[in-house]
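Hi W.,

Here's what went into the run:
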Amino acid sequence: MIIFQNVTVKYPYGNLALNDVSFEIADNEFVYLVGPSGAGKTTILRLLLREITPASGQVTLDNEEISSKKFHDLTTLRQKIGIVFQDFRVLNDKNVYENVALSMRIKGYAASEIKSQVVEALELTGIEDKIFMFPSQLSAGELQRVAIARAIVGERSILLADEPTGNLDPKTTWDVMKIFKKLEKKRTILFATHNTDIVNSMQRRVIVVKNGAIVKDQRKGKYEL
Amino acid sequence: MKDILTSLRRTPYQTSAAFLVLFFTLLLSGILFISLSFIQGLLSYVETRPRIIVYFQIKAEDEEVRAVQKKLETTGKTENIKYVSKKEAYNIYKEFTKDDPVLLEMTSPDILPASLEIDAKSPEFLPELAEFLKNQPGVDEVEFQKDIVQNLLNLTRNIRRTILVFFAYLLIMSIIVMATTTSFKTALKKEDIALQRLLGATNFYIRKPFIAESVFLGIIASICANSSIAVILLSLNSFLSIFLSGLPKLSVNMLNMSLQVWPFNLMFIVVTFGLTTLFGLIISLVASLSATNRYL
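Here's what came out:
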């Protein structure tokens, strides 16, 4: 369970990045976070990763207030979360297998468990035949699949996706969305995007953020600003 | 291991710089350690053999000398006393000047003094015994090793200080070069580190490859430095054995254990190798920890 309670985030010069934002996301829920660039979508994701802390308000994850100054268990928090970025962020000197396995090695899994989960994740994302290829040998769509596979292995209960289709062509975007569809109901997914088509087609919960505030929060919503 | 070798191969100049500096440091450290141990062993040897030589007046009779010898024995501060009569002194002189017959012709047993060579139980008894002897009848001159020991002590102290300064210099230089190399590598991996942190990696997990790489370099440099030291010792051993043939076994005390320094032996070489390797590991660890600390 993710709870944002009257969260306000200020930029260093005093401008508001988020203004009194409150919402709740249940376990295994799929939520779109939509809004124009600079609306505050990424700020919400960064609060969940505790890359930043709010000026006021509380961010609670699994009954633990992660925005508190007393919160220090950053490693455990981040080990619960998988992330997919717009720019993929895969390690160029590691092959597909090693990139995905990194997520589990960090959590200290045994080699045999890593192997079985990585292979399973690569099959799910449809790149099992690229297992020993390096990022320079892959297309943008394949790189994003690697990033998704990395985000879902190692029993990470939350998946944060920050504009994951932003760098992809329409066909690849739909291929990637099919993967996300397979992943829903098994983990909490927070999907930040400004792609109208994919939000409207999937009919999931939509939280609309504009100028740092939530302007709409609809079950089975659409991308309407 | 594969990751370490790949990383080292990808940064050949930084790796070479770090390796060469570490190798040079460890080689010099090993040589300095051996030299210092040798000098310390020599000092210990001299210190354990405190000796006084007392020369009697020419007119002094044997009885007078024997009487002084007896008095000395009763002090309980002597280990061994050797009486060198005028005749024995002349024989020693003859042997000493055998290549110069003119000098020998000018001398007779009557003009050489009898003497006592006294080994004290401890160097601290030397001044006391010397003072005692000066007040004895028939005594002409008292010679003892106070000055020699003092000079050797001063020399050892100065050499030790110089070596320590040199050690510190080598240590700091190596740490800075290794830390700079590791910092450079860490900077190259800045984005990887940021990603690992977002995925929940602990500081130790992030540091581990950099530390492993440094330690690996430290071990390789130490093996090379120690091998070079072994080659130097082996090639010098026969020469030193002849050159230092009169020298007895030399030992130093290390952690309440006596370590034989000369003639070179396996235990001394193992200790030197162990300390050099430890020194290399300390440099590698401190350098990699301080370098990675800046990014974590």
